[in-house]
Design brief:
It is a single chain. It contains 30 helices and 20 strands. With 704 residues, the protein is of the alpha+beta class. Among the domains are: 192 residues, no CATH class; 205 residues, no CATH class. The longest helix is centred in the N-terminal third of the chain and has 20 residues.
Length: 704
């Protein structure tokens, strides 16, 4: 007996060309009934944590690949179940990459993108969310297997929305039967399933494409016939050796599909709403585009070798552009069929265009830098989120190519500094275009600005967006480079406290029943703070203050506390590190606060009030007195309890519930305690802050 995970960890499961499309997800009445019964049966065993037996799954094993003769439908559904629960529960699902469809390149690619993509499983319509993802190609909706998978995903999500069953999926088992071990010949598989379909799509493609080329230019056809089996094969052969298939077929087609898509968008603003078939190829491949394809294939090795000269990984290197990706070889990712975002597709196309005619030079690297900056800023921050979501979509590619290709082999900083940008429907805001013009004017005016600007752009928390730090003094720019790298490598709490010495910089990101939500910054998510709009004055004052305090956050904080005697919320956040330090008891601490008022607020342990949260003032008291605080869920505030007295932090002071003024008359005479209808308020005064006051109050209570 085996389960899907066990088989997928041993073999590549490859649904072969001669198998039919995935049928369990079809929308017809019969398929819907089968799907409902199958999911009901799975639901019962997952709920009860018992076993389910799915009969025989059998096929051939060829070079570590399991090619099923029977069981395709069940295997595909199991793949989707492992994907759904694994993604939702944050489990390791890399073994799912061993499940692949040979039937269509689109089905194969979809399965791969599904594993790599990020989704919000709280969304009711997860199928539409997938289709709205930047990596989902419009023509995939014409693939019956992908259509069926999306239908099955929707039904799985509807049925198992509130369940966490990943670890129980291994209970779904089947008899795994290998034809070779039964004594049956492998060719039985072919004979039983022969339906007149070719087993080599690549050979079919070559013949049809060659015929199309011959109708345009016979010399081009001769060139293609020779190079497809010689010169160009050498480049793709290395990929076939690495994956032990010793074939170039899929690698060549991955590259061909990419170039075809980009050539379509170079001349057309409309989406490519169909699979790349012979009809599409005939439409796209004019003589000029055929010549472009051939020229790009001739230069593939040079393109592949260029990335180390053009890109750094995630920080500034002289004469390079930070890609902010661990794998900078975009071409290899395209050829391997790996996930590549639209920005990287654009950058690769600009590189190919340039290298067809020229060598790597400053004009290319500067163009890549500006293109990276602008495409990175086609984004937004969703309500309640602390990071940016990219909005770059296929619909932008045509306008972006038109915008960028006009600067091929030109000094883009001279062009922008003197002439600016033409208006376009590229998805780039006017403000974003102006940022690049402002930088270009400085660079074109004086080369001493170039390196400090590039360093700032290549910092991981700016990623090309440096409008908050752009000043017309190159020495000041150099200081900013050193300062922000020094500051934002420190602990989050220290950074937050130091920034609050200057002003309230927190970003409002949403709303809860306990008040608006504010984000104060966090390691790996400082980008949204450093690139927020209208923060130039704040960061100028902050970095000036940092310099004035000998580049020391501790001195900056100490200087503020010596001068500041107003006990407002900023004073407490700056003075007490516990206010902003990570609270492990509240799960995911993103430095987000639900804010009803300056003293009635909760540090949140997740994205909503279902997670635990805690008042930071209460947290400070708990830590300093060694008390166990009450962390809270939902729309209530956290508190501490001393001798049955329940204490909340309130706007007027400390709110005391179940306080017996007769019993604690001595306490009443020592402190200013105001009686309210349902509680008492321990009021602070101008002489001491509320933290010190409550500590003394609790110590007095404990002595009685």
């Amino acid at each position: 007996m085996e389960n899907f995970k066990g088989v997928a960890e041993k073999y590549i499961i490859q649904i072969p060309i001669i198998q039919r499309d995935y049928a369990q997800g079809r929308k017809d009445k019969k398929a819907s009934q089968v799907r409902e019964k199958f999911l009901d049966a799975i639901g019962e065993v997952l709920e009860s944590d018992t076993d389910l037996h799915l009969d025989f799954v059998y096929g051939s094993i060829i070079r570590e690949k399991f090619i099923p003769l029977d069981g395709q439908q069940r295997l595909t559904t199991l793949f989707l179940l492992y994907w759904y629960f694994g993604k939702k529960e944050g489990k390791g699902i890399q073994f799912l990459k061993n499940f692949t469809y040979e039937t269509r390149a689109s089905s194969r690619e979809f399965c791969h993108k599904l594993i790599e993509g990020e989704l919000n499983f709280k969304d009711d319509d997860i199928s539409n969310q997938i289709k709205d993802s930047s990596w989902f190609l419009a023509y995939w909706e014409n693939d019956p297997t992908i259509q069926a998978m999306l239908t099955m995903i929707s039904d799985i999500h509807q049925k198992f929305y509130s369940n966490l069953f990943f670890d129980r999926l291994d209970n779904i088992k089947f008899n795994f039967f290998e034809l070779g071990k039964s004594g049956l010949a492998d060719d039985l598989y072919i004979k039983m399933n022969a339906r007149g379909k070719s087993l080599t799509e690549f050979e079919d493609f070559k013949a049809k494409f060659e015929k199309h080329i011959s109708t345009i230019d016979n010399n081009l056809k001769i060139n293609f016939s020779h190079k497809i089996d010689n010169d160009w094969t050498d480049f793709f052969w290395e990929f076939g050796v690495k994956d032990e298939s010793f074939l170039i077929d899929k690698f060549f087609m991955n590259y061909f599909s990419y170039v075809t898509e980009m050539l379509h968008f170079r001349g057309n603003s409309k989406a490519l709403n169909e699979e790349i078939n012979l009809k599409t190829i005939k439409k796209i491949y004019t003589k000029d585009n055929i010549q472009f394809l051939f020229s790009s294939l001739d230069k593939l090795q040079q393109v592949s070798n260029s990335f180390r000269s053009i890109f750094s990984i995630d920080d500034y290197e002289e004469d390079k552009v930070a890609l902010f990706d661990k794998d900078i070889n975009i071409l290899n990712k395209i050829v391997n069929g790996e996930s590549v975002n639209i920005q990287q597709k654009l950058l690769l196309f600009l590189i190919i265009n340039h290298l067809i005619d020229s060598e790597i030079n400053d004009e290319l690297i500067d163009l890549i830098r500006v293109a990276r900056n602008l495409t990175n800023r086609i984004r937004h921050r969703k309500t309640a989120y602390i990071y940016y979501t990219g909005d770059l979509a296929n619909e932008h590619i045509h306008s972006l190519l038109k915008l960028f290709l006009k600067y091929k082999n030109k000094n883009i900083y001279y062009e922008l500094g003197n002439y600016g940008f033409e208006r376009s429907n590229s998805g780039i805001t006017q403000a974003s275009l102006q940022y690049e013009i402002d930088k270009a004017k400085l660079i074109d005016y004086k080369q001493t600005f170039k390196i400090p600007i590039f360093k700032l752009e290549d910092y991981k928390y700016t990623r090309g967006d440096i409008h908050n730090f752009l000043v017309s003094d190159s020495a000041e720019l150099n200081y900013y480079n050193e300062a922000i790298r020094e500051i934002y490598s420190d602990r989050d709490s220290m950074i937050v406290r130091s920034m609050l010495t200057v002003d309230d910089y927190a970003m409002e990101i949403g709303w809860t029943l306990l008040g608006n939500k504010y984000f104060f910054g966090k390691r790996n998510n400082w980008e949204v703070i450093l690139t927020a709009t209208n923060k130039q004055d704040f960061f100028r004052d902050y970095l000036t203050s940092f310099k004035a305090n000998d580049l020391s956050l501790k001195k900056l904080i100490s200087s503020y506390l010596q001068k500041n005697t107003v006990f407002n919320w900023r004073y407490y956040f700056v003075k007490y590190p516990e206010m902003t330090r990570q609270i492990s008891r509240i799960s995911t601490d993103n430095n987000v606060y639900a804010w009803q008022d300056d003293f009635s607020l909760e540090k949140m342990g997740g994205s909503n009030l279902n997670a635990y949260h805690q008042n930071p003032y209460i947290n400070v008291i708990s830590i300093k007195l060694g008390l166990e605080p009450f962390i809270i869920q939902y729309d209530e505030f956290s508190y501490i309890q001393i001798k049955k007295i329940i204490i909340y932090s309130g706007l007027e002071g400390w709110e005391l519930y179940s306080f017996d003024k007769e019993k604690y008359s001595a306490i009443m005479s020592k402190y200013e305690i105001e009686e309210k209808e349902k509680y008492y308020v321990l009021k602070e005064n101008d002489c001491r802050d509320r933290i010190e006051l409550l500590i003394e109050f609790i110590n007095d209570l404990n002595m009685l």
